[in-house]
Specification:
- It is a single chain.
- The chain contains four helices and 16 strands.
- By secondary structure, the protein is of the alpha+beta class.
- It has a domain of 214 residues: Jelly Rolls.
- The strands form four sheets. Strands 2, 3, 5, 6, 9, 12 and 16 form a seven-stranded antiparallel beta sheet that branches. A five-stranded antiparallel beta sheet has the order 4-7-13-10-11, with no helix packed on it.
- Helix 1 crosses helix 2.
Length: 422
């Protein structure tokens, strides 16, 4: 009979199994009571075990399922990446020359903001300007003069005014910089105002102010309270009552504080620079509330004595009134009775006081004294000479006007140049 391939395979398997049984039996310890058949079963069991172990190896593929644990979670952090535009390499904003200041003729003044005014793209940051104030009367004005810019304002007591450089990008990442600096020119005055510099930043800018073009991250209680709920960090350059120092003013970012809700300055999200002038409640200078009193008037001179008669009546000085004294006028001369001795002249009545000076006007003159009676002691039958006329009192000096209490404004004239980051 011819053997098929399958029969040959079976025979080979049986021979291999017999060989394995022989090996298994030879490995048994001496004295083992196991029969040859039992050893064959054990051999088959041992041979099957390696196959099972191979199946367990497939379980190792489960470890690959752990790969999603890291990567996906990390990508979620991309929402916190700063998306403000990087600051150009040149840190100068403007030196008010034609190269960095646009469409303004020397000597020109303006009070309304311009959208595109300063900077030179792409080498520098660019932007426009904005004016603001508390009350309309405190509104500032700027003037370009000799490649410098002057801010002028007459700020009411207790009010404020400001001038701003708005950045053209919605926000600017200036994280490579340390601060802001600019030059203050000689002749600049604050008129008792405080000068602060504020830096607008995205975290403290109201979300309701310019939601379509310059969205901020600060959410105020309402649009009416947005600039109280959201505040830019600031630093004081010169306090009220202090002297403004000419020269280069250097303001490190670490000096800025009191932002709301984020107090410290974050230079990777800047939006604008604000120069703000704040006039205190007592204004620029408080004048005296009372005027100087008027000088008192001189008294009237006494009347001269009548010839052969007794002395003429004297006139009394006018009393002071309201800081102004009026002088009494003299008594008029007395006429003697014919042939009889003249009776003694009675004194002139006191001149009435001058009226009070209104707002410092001069007092009116005193009313003249009444006439004195003729003097006695004339020789019988002869006429006694009339008493001489009394000299009139001099007029009172007018009191100076008493001005009312006033609180003058803070008059600001601030000239600056070379605005740059450093």
């Amino acid at each position: 009979m011819t053997r098929t391939k399958s029969t040959i395979g079976i025979s080979a398997v049986l021979l291999l199994a017999s060989a394995l049984v022989g090996v298994a039996c030879s490995s048994e310890p001496t004295g083992s009571s196991s029969s040859g058949g039992s050893a064959g079963v054990a051999g088959n069991h041992v041979a099957g075990a390696p196959g099972a172990a191979g199946t367990a190896g497939a379980a190792g593929t489960v470890g690959s399922a752990g790969s999603p644990s890291g990567g996906a979670g990390g990508s979620g952090g991309s929402g916190g990446v700063n998306n403000c535009e990087p600051l150009p390499a040149k840190l100068l904003l403007t030196d008010f020359s034609p190269a960095t200041f646009k469409v303004v003729t020397d000597g020109t003044s303006w009070t309304a903001g311009k959208a595109d005014l300063w900077g030179s793209a792409p080498s520098t940051l660019t932007g426009g300007d904005v004016f603001y104030q508390g009350k309309p009367g405190s509104a500032p004005r700027v003037t370009l003069n000799g490649q410098t810019l002057t801010v002028t304002a007459t700020i009411e007591a207790g009010d404020y005014a400001g001038y701003m450089f708005n950045f053209k990008p919605a926000c600017t990442n200036a994280s490579t910089t340390q601060g802001l600096q600019f030059d203050i020119l000689a002749g600049s005055t604050l008129g008792n105002a405080t000068l602060k510099v504020q830096m607008q930043q995205k975290s403290d800018y109201p979300s309701t102010a310019n939601p379509n073009t310059r969205p901020g991250d600060c959410v105020p209680t309402s649009a009416a309270t947005q600039y109280n709920d959201c505040l830019s960090p600031a630093t004081t350059v010169t306090s009220s009552g202090s002297t403004l120092t000419p020269g280069t003013t250097v303001l490190p970012w670490v000096n800025f504080s009191d932002g709301k809700p984020v107090s410290a300055l974050q230079n990777n999200q800047l939006m604008a620079i604000q120069w703000q002038f704040e006039c205190p409640p007592d204004g620029g200078k408080v004048l005296d509330s009372n005027g100087n009193g008027g000088a008192s008037g001189e008294g009237g001179f006494s009347g001269g004595a009548g010839t052969g008669g007794s002395s003429a009546g004297s006139s009394s000085a006018g009393a002071d009134a309201g800081g102004v004294s009026s002088g009494g006028a003299s008594g008029s001369s007395g006429a003697p009775a014919a042939g009889s001795s003249g009776a003694s002249g009675s004194s002139g009545s006191a001149g009435s006081s001058g009226s009070a000076g209104s707002s410092g006007t001069s007092g009116s003159g005193g009313i003249s004294g009444s006439s004195g009676t003729a003097g006695s002691g004339g020789t019988a039958g002869s006429s006694g000479s009339a008493g001489s006329t009394a000299t009139a009192g001099s007029s009172a000096t007018a009191g100076s006007g008493g001005s009312g209490s006033t609180t003058p404004p803070c008059v600001v004239s601030f000239t600056f140049d070379n605005v740059t980051f450093y």
